[in-house]
Amino acid sequence: MDAVLFDMDGLLVDTERVWFEVEEEVVGRLGGTWGPEHQEQLVGGSWERTVAYMLALTRTDVDPAIVGEWLIEGMESRLSTGVVLMPGAVELLRSLGDHGIRTALVTSSLRVIADAVLKSVGREHFEVIVTADDVSRTKPDPEPYLTAAALLAVNPARCVVLEDSPNGVASATAAGCRVVAVPSVLPIAPGEGRLVMPSLLDVNVDLLRSHIL
């Protein structure tokens, strides 16, 4: 195993709940209502898709850049007080570090959101960070994970990706990586080259290494 590549939202940190609050607030400003059925459409998707979905849902002609600013402001405000880490996240990151295994963070969130989250998670855990600002196509396209592998100078087939969403799993699989899925909002079925685990508490270095063999 050359490296372990981590998703962020819903996998390392419990931000899907925070996203829901912000999305509900922004859609309210647009004159609409927001529910779990709407969030499910966007889990693991791109920033642009989120804004476009909100505008289509509310049938408003507000500048997409303004809607994006509302989302960023809402997330930064909430993340400034810290985030809730998923059970087992820090322990797994520390164990990988103790074993000298290289890691990267690969997220569909913007750099400003990732930076805010990393104040709680710890920037030192990741050799490489790839955000929506660093790619032209976000998940489910393979570009984010291919970019991380290229920056680490490793073979994607020798990498294990930890993901929580179907979009993220599709991105990692298309990049040629092995996948360990820990579903959050949406269910994920086992598949070729993919393990599904109930929690990061059930994931350790030996499991990740065995998934490459």
UniProtKB/TrEMBL annotation:
InterPro entries: HAD-like_sf, HAD-SF_hydro_IA, HAD_2, HAD_sf, PGP-like_dom2
GO molecular function: hydrolase activity
UniProt-listed SUPFAM superfamilies: HAD-like
Gene3D superfamilies: HAD superfamily/HAD-like, Putative phosphatase, domain 2
Keywords: Hydrolase
Ligase among keywords: no
Protein name (record): Hydrolase
